Protein backbone atom coordinates (compact mmCIF):
# COMPACT_ATOMS: atom_id res chain seq x y z
CA UNK A 1 0.00 0.00 0.00
CA UNK A 2 2.75 2.47 1.10
CA UNK A 3 5.06 1.28 -1.69
CA UNK A 4 2.28 1.78 -4.24
CA UNK A 5 1.68 5.31 -2.93
CA UNK A 6 5.39 6.21 -3.12
CA UNK A 7 5.62 4.81 -6.67
CA UNK A 8 2.57 6.82 -7.71
CA UNK A 9 3.98 9.96 -6.09
CA UNK A 10 7.39 9.44 -7.72
CA UNK A 11 5.76 9.16 -11.15
CA UNK A 12 3.64 12.26 -10.57
CA UNK A 13 6.61 14.26 -9.22
CA UNK A 14 8.86 13.16 -12.09
CA UNK A 15 6.26 14.37 -14.60
CA UNK A 16 5.94 17.71 -12.79
CA UNK A 17 9.72 18.03 -12.63
CA UNK A 18 10.16 17.32 -16.35
CA UNK A 19 7.57 20.04 -17.05
CA UNK A 20 9.46 22.39 -14.74
CA UNK A 21 12.89 21.83 -16.35
CA UNK A 22 12.39 23.79 -19.61
CA UNK A 23 11.05 26.71 -17.56
CA UNK A 24 14.05 26.72 -15.21
CA UNK A 25 16.56 26.27 -18.02
CA UNK A 26 14.77 28.93 -20.10
CA UNK A 27 14.73 31.27 -17.11
CA UNK A 28 18.44 30.81 -16.44
CA UNK A 29 19.27 31.32 -20.12
CA UNK A 30 17.13 34.49 -20.22
CA UNK A 31 18.67 35.86 -16.99
CA UNK A 32 22.18 35.18 -18.34
CA UNK A 33 21.36 36.98 -21.58
CA UNK A 34 19.84 39.96 -19.70
CA UNK A 35 22.86 40.26 -17.38
CA UNK A 36 25.26 40.14 -20.36
CA UNK A 37 23.35 42.47 -22.70
CA UNK A 38 22.50 45.09 -20.07
CA UNK A 39 25.71 45.60 -18.13
CA UNK A 40 25.45 46.89 -14.57
CA UNK A 41 27.44 50.07 -15.30
CA UNK A 42 24.50 51.57 -17.25
CA UNK A 43 22.47 52.04 -14.08
CA UNK A 44 24.82 54.50 -12.31
CA UNK A 45 24.18 57.33 -14.79
CA UNK A 46 20.38 57.11 -14.46
CA UNK A 47 19.95 58.60 -10.98
CA UNK A 48 20.16 62.03 -9.38
CA UNK A 49 17.11 64.08 -10.43
CA UNK A 50 14.86 63.77 -7.33
CA UNK A 51 14.11 61.24 -4.58
CA UNK A 52 10.76 60.29 -6.13
CA UNK A 53 12.20 59.83 -9.62
CA UNK A 54 15.24 58.01 -8.21
CA UNK A 55 12.97 55.59 -6.32
CA UNK A 56 10.94 54.98 -9.48
CA UNK A 57 14.08 54.38 -11.55
CA UNK A 58 15.63 52.25 -8.79
CA UNK A 59 12.52 50.06 -8.59
CA UNK A 60 12.32 49.81 -12.39
CA UNK A 61 15.98 48.81 -12.81
CA UNK A 62 15.69 46.33 -9.91
CA UNK A 63 12.53 44.85 -11.45
CA UNK A 64 14.17 44.02 -14.78
CA UNK A 65 17.51 43.02 -13.25
CA UNK A 66 18.14 39.34 -12.79
CA UNK A 67 20.57 37.33 -10.78
CA UNK A 68 21.56 36.39 -7.27
CA UNK A 69 20.39 38.85 -4.54
CA UNK A 70 24.02 39.05 -3.50
CA UNK A 71 24.68 40.95 -6.74
CA UNK A 72 22.00 43.52 -5.78
CA UNK A 73 23.75 44.18 -2.44
CA UNK A 74 27.13 44.56 -4.13
CA UNK A 75 25.75 46.79 -6.88
CA UNK A 76 23.59 48.72 -4.38
CA UNK A 77 26.65 49.29 -2.20
CA UNK A 78 28.64 50.56 -5.19
CA UNK A 79 25.77 52.84 -6.29
CA UNK A 80 25.59 54.28 -2.77
CA UNK A 81 29.36 54.93 -2.81
CA UNK A 82 29.04 56.69 -6.17
CA UNK A 83 26.51 59.14 -4.67
CA UNK A 84 23.15 57.56 -5.56
CA UNK A 85 20.53 58.23 -2.84
CA UNK A 86 19.64 55.58 -0.26
CA UNK A 87 15.98 55.81 -1.37
CA UNK A 88 16.95 54.78 -4.91
CA UNK A 89 19.31 52.05 -3.73
CA UNK A 90 16.66 50.61 -1.37
CA UNK A 91 13.98 50.61 -4.08
CA UNK A 92 16.52 48.90 -6.34
CA UNK A 93 17.46 46.20 -3.80
CA UNK A 94 13.86 45.49 -2.74
CA UNK A 95 12.48 45.28 -6.27
CA UNK A 96 15.43 43.06 -7.29
CA UNK A 97 14.30 40.41 -4.79
CA UNK A 98 10.52 40.89 -4.96
CA UNK A 99 9.67 41.84 -8.56
CA UNK A 100 10.65 39.54 -11.41
CA UNK A 101 10.03 40.86 -14.91
CA UNK A 102 12.46 38.32 -16.34
CA UNK A 103 10.84 35.54 -14.28
CA UNK A 104 7.32 36.68 -15.20
CA UNK A 105 6.84 34.16 -18.06
CA UNK A 106 7.75 31.33 -15.67
CA UNK A 107 5.50 32.70 -12.91
CA UNK A 108 2.62 33.06 -15.38
CA UNK A 109 3.08 29.49 -16.58
CA UNK A 110 3.28 28.05 -13.07
CA UNK A 111 0.91 30.22 -11.00
CA UNK A 112 -1.38 31.90 -13.53
CA UNK A 113 -1.29 35.24 -15.36
CA UNK A 114 -3.57 37.17 -12.97
CA UNK A 115 -1.69 36.05 -9.88
CA UNK A 116 1.70 36.84 -11.43
CA UNK A 117 0.74 40.27 -12.76
CA UNK A 118 -1.10 41.40 -9.61
CA UNK A 119 1.73 40.18 -7.38
CA UNK A 120 4.45 41.89 -9.38
CA UNK A 121 2.56 45.19 -9.60
CA UNK A 122 1.96 45.13 -5.81
CA UNK A 123 5.65 44.33 -5.22
CA UNK A 124 6.80 47.14 -7.52
CA UNK A 125 4.83 49.82 -5.67
CA UNK A 126 5.67 48.40 -2.25
CA UNK A 127 9.39 48.54 -3.15
CA UNK A 128 9.01 52.32 -3.59
CA UNK A 129 6.99 52.59 -0.35
CA UNK A 130 9.58 50.55 1.58
CA UNK A 131 12.39 52.71 0.18
CA UNK A 132 10.85 55.93 1.54
CA UNK A 133 9.68 54.35 4.82
CA UNK A 134 13.10 52.81 5.54
CA UNK A 135 14.98 56.04 4.87
CA UNK A 136 12.53 58.17 6.90
CA UNK A 137 12.59 55.63 9.77
CA UNK A 138 16.40 55.74 9.82
CA UNK A 139 16.29 59.55 9.87
CA UNK A 140 13.85 59.45 12.81
CA UNK A 141 16.12 57.01 14.63
CA UNK A 142 18.97 59.51 14.11
CA UNK B 1 -4.89 16.31 -14.09
CA UNK B 2 -2.29 14.56 -16.25
CA UNK B 3 -3.55 16.17 -19.46
CA UNK B 4 -3.47 19.63 -17.85
CA UNK B 5 0.12 18.94 -16.76
CA UNK B 6 0.99 17.97 -20.34
CA UNK B 7 -0.53 21.25 -21.57
CA UNK B 8 1.53 23.25 -19.03
CA UNK B 9 4.58 21.23 -20.11
CA UNK B 10 4.09 22.33 -23.72
CA UNK B 11 4.05 25.98 -22.56
CA UNK B 12 7.40 25.46 -20.83
CA UNK B 13 9.04 23.97 -23.93
CA UNK B 14 7.62 26.79 -26.04
CA UNK B 15 9.11 29.30 -23.59
CA UNK B 16 12.52 27.57 -23.82
CA UNK B 17 12.27 27.62 -27.63
CA UNK B 18 11.55 31.38 -27.59
CA UNK B 19 14.56 31.98 -25.33
CA UNK B 20 16.75 29.94 -27.70
CA UNK B 21 15.45 32.05 -30.60
CA UNK B 22 16.46 35.18 -28.59
CA UNK B 23 19.94 33.65 -28.25
CA UNK B 24 19.99 32.93 -31.99
CA UNK B 25 19.09 36.56 -32.79
CA UNK B 26 21.70 37.85 -30.29
CA UNK B 27 24.29 35.47 -31.75
CA UNK B 28 23.57 36.69 -35.28
CA UNK B 29 24.10 40.31 -34.14
CA UNK B 30 26.99 39.72 -31.73
CA UNK B 31 28.32 36.17 -31.49
CA UNK B 32 30.76 37.07 -28.69
CA UNK B 33 27.98 38.45 -26.48
CA UNK B 34 25.86 35.32 -26.99
CA UNK B 35 28.93 33.23 -26.10
CA UNK B 36 29.48 35.25 -22.91
CA UNK B 37 25.81 34.79 -21.95
CA UNK B 38 26.09 31.02 -22.53
CA UNK B 39 29.24 30.83 -20.44
CA UNK B 40 27.46 32.76 -17.64
CA UNK B 41 24.52 30.35 -17.96
CA UNK B 42 26.89 27.38 -17.55
CA UNK B 43 28.27 28.77 -14.30
CA UNK B 44 24.80 29.57 -12.89
CA UNK B 45 23.40 26.16 -13.96
CA UNK B 46 26.25 24.43 -12.14
CA UNK B 47 25.29 26.28 -8.93
CA UNK B 48 21.57 25.61 -9.40
CA UNK B 49 21.87 21.82 -9.96
CA UNK B 50 21.96 20.86 -6.24
CA UNK B 51 18.98 23.17 -5.62
CA UNK B 52 17.04 21.35 -8.36
CA UNK B 53 17.64 18.07 -6.53
CA UNK B 54 16.24 19.69 -3.35
CA UNK B 55 13.24 20.97 -5.31
CA UNK B 56 12.54 17.45 -6.61
CA UNK B 57 12.66 16.05 -3.06
CA UNK B 58 10.43 18.85 -1.75
CA UNK B 59 7.90 18.26 -4.53
CA UNK B 60 7.87 14.55 -3.70
CA UNK B 61 7.55 15.29 0.03
CA UNK B 62 4.72 17.77 -0.62
CA UNK B 63 2.87 15.20 -2.72
CA UNK B 64 3.34 12.46 -0.12
CA UNK B 65 2.87 14.41 3.10
CA UNK B 66 0.53 17.30 2.43
CA UNK B 67 -2.99 16.06 2.07
CA UNK B 68 -5.42 18.57 0.53
CA UNK B 69 -7.29 18.55 3.87
CA UNK B 70 -4.13 19.69 5.78
CA UNK B 71 -3.36 22.39 3.20
CA UNK B 72 -6.92 23.71 3.33
CA UNK B 73 -6.81 23.79 7.14
CA UNK B 74 -3.36 25.45 7.46
CA UNK B 75 -2.96 27.45 4.25
CA UNK B 76 -6.51 27.69 2.95
CA UNK B 77 -9.39 30.07 3.66
CA UNK B 78 -9.93 28.59 7.13
CA UNK B 79 -6.23 28.89 8.14
CA UNK B 80 -6.41 32.23 10.00
CA UNK B 81 -3.32 33.92 11.44
CA UNK B 82 -1.44 30.62 11.67
CA UNK B 83 -1.54 30.31 7.87
CA UNK B 84 -0.07 33.79 7.43
CA UNK B 85 2.73 32.98 9.89
CA UNK B 86 3.52 29.65 8.21
CA UNK B 87 3.69 31.38 4.81
CA UNK B 88 5.91 34.24 6.07
CA UNK B 89 8.33 32.02 8.02
CA UNK B 90 8.42 29.48 5.17
CA UNK B 91 9.35 32.25 2.74
CA UNK B 92 12.18 33.53 4.97
CA UNK B 93 13.59 30.01 5.33
CA UNK B 94 13.21 29.13 1.64
CA UNK B 95 16.51 29.28 -0.23
CA UNK B 96 17.45 29.10 -3.92
CA UNK B 97 16.03 30.91 -6.94
CA UNK B 98 12.42 32.07 -6.80
CA UNK B 99 11.27 30.11 -9.88
CA UNK B 100 12.33 26.86 -8.23
CA UNK B 101 9.52 27.46 -5.71
CA UNK B 102 6.81 28.14 -8.28
CA UNK B 103 6.27 24.40 -8.81
CA UNK B 104 5.84 23.72 -5.09
CA UNK B 105 3.44 26.65 -4.74
CA UNK B 106 1.44 25.41 -7.73
CA UNK B 107 1.23 21.99 -6.10
CA UNK B 108 0.05 23.58 -2.82
CA UNK B 109 -2.35 25.94 -4.63
CA UNK B 110 -3.90 22.96 -6.45
CA UNK B 111 -4.43 21.37 -3.04
CA UNK B 112 -6.16 24.44 -1.61
CA UNK B 113 -3.54 27.03 -0.60
CA UNK B 114 -4.79 30.61 -0.80
CA UNK B 115 -3.31 32.90 -3.47
CA UNK B 116 -2.72 35.52 -0.77
CA UNK B 117 -0.55 33.12 1.28
CA UNK B 118 1.43 32.17 -1.84
CA UNK B 119 2.06 35.92 -2.30
CA UNK B 120 3.17 36.25 1.35
CA UNK B 121 5.56 33.30 0.89
CA UNK B 122 7.09 34.77 -2.28
CA UNK B 123 7.43 38.25 -0.74
CA UNK B 124 9.02 37.15 2.54
CA UNK B 125 11.70 35.36 0.51
CA UNK B 126 13.19 38.87 0.16
CA UNK B 127 14.57 38.45 3.70
CA UNK B 128 17.71 36.44 3.01
CA UNK B 129 19.02 35.14 6.32
CA UNK B 130 22.36 33.81 4.99
CA UNK B 131 23.05 37.16 3.28
CA UNK B 132 22.28 39.38 6.27
CA UNK B 133 25.96 39.67 7.36
CA UNK B 134 26.84 40.98 3.91
CA UNK B 135 23.96 43.44 3.94
CA UNK B 136 25.07 44.67 7.38
CA UNK B 137 28.60 45.07 6.00
CA UNK B 138 27.40 47.24 3.12
CA UNK B 139 24.53 49.19 4.69
CA UNK B 140 24.87 48.90 8.48
CA UNK B 141 22.95 47.06 11.20
CA UNK B 142 20.21 49.67 11.69
CA UNK B 143 19.40 49.82 7.97
CA UNK B 144 19.36 46.02 7.67
CA UNK B 145 17.02 45.62 10.65
CA UNK B 146 14.66 48.37 9.50
CA UNK B 147 14.54 46.98 5.97
CA UNK B 148 13.88 43.41 7.19
CA UNK B 149 11.02 44.59 9.43
CA UNK B 150 9.45 46.48 6.51
CA UNK B 151 9.95 43.53 4.16
CA UNK B 152 8.14 41.21 6.56
CA UNK B 153 5.42 43.80 7.16
CA UNK B 154 4.91 44.36 3.46
CA UNK B 155 4.80 40.60 2.81
CA UNK B 156 1.61 40.65 4.89
CA UNK B 157 0.41 43.82 3.10
CA UNK B 158 0.92 42.10 -0.28
CA UNK B 159 -1.09 39.13 1.01
CA UNK B 160 -3.90 41.42 2.23
CA UNK B 161 -4.04 43.13 -1.18
CA UNK B 162 -4.20 39.71 -2.83
CA UNK B 163 -7.13 38.86 -0.52
CA UNK B 164 -8.99 41.87 -1.95
CA UNK B 165 -8.29 40.56 -5.43
CA UNK B 166 -9.22 37.02 -4.38
CA UNK B 167 -12.56 38.34 -3.18
CA UNK B 168 -13.16 40.20 -6.44
CA UNK B 169 -12.26 37.34 -8.72
CA UNK B 170 -10.75 33.87 -8.65
CA UNK B 171 -6.98 34.03 -8.96
Terminal-residue CA separation of chain A? 64 Å
Given the helix and strand composition of chain B, which structural class is it? mainly alpha
Average pLDDT level of chain B: 83
Shape of chain B: globular
Q: What radius of gyration of chain B results from the CA coordinates?
A: 19 Å
Sheet of most strands of chain A? none
Overview of this protein structure:
The complex is a heterodimer of chains A (142) and B (171). Chain A is mainly α and 142 residues long. Chain A has one domain (26-141). Chain A is 80% helix and 0% strand. The termini of chain A are far apart. Chain B is 83% helix and 0% strand. The mean pLDDT of chain B is 83. Chain B has 8 helices and no strands. Chain B has helices at 2-29, 31-65, 68-75, 81-93, 99-110, 115-124, 132-139, 141-168. Chain B is globular, with a radius of gyration of 19 Å. At the A-B interface, helix 1, helix 3, helix 4, helix 5 and helix 6 of A face helix 1, helix 2, helix 5, helix 6 and helix 7 of B.
State the gist of this model.
The complex is a heterodimer of chains A (142) and B (171). Chain A is an all-alpha fold.
Brief descriptors of the model:
heterodimer, A: about 140 residues, mainly alpha, 6 helices, B: about 170 residues
Write the layout of secondary structure elements.
The complex is a heterodimer of chains A (142) and B (171).
Chain A: H1 2-37, H2 51-64, H3 69-81, H4 86-98, H5 104-111, H6 113-141
Helix pairs in contact in A: 2-4, 2-6, 3-4, 4-6, 5-6
Chain B: H1 2-29, H2 31-65, H3 68-75, H4 81-93, H5 99-110, H6 115-124, H7 132-139, H8 141-168
Helix pairs in contact in B: 1-2, 2-5, 4-6, 6-8, 7-8
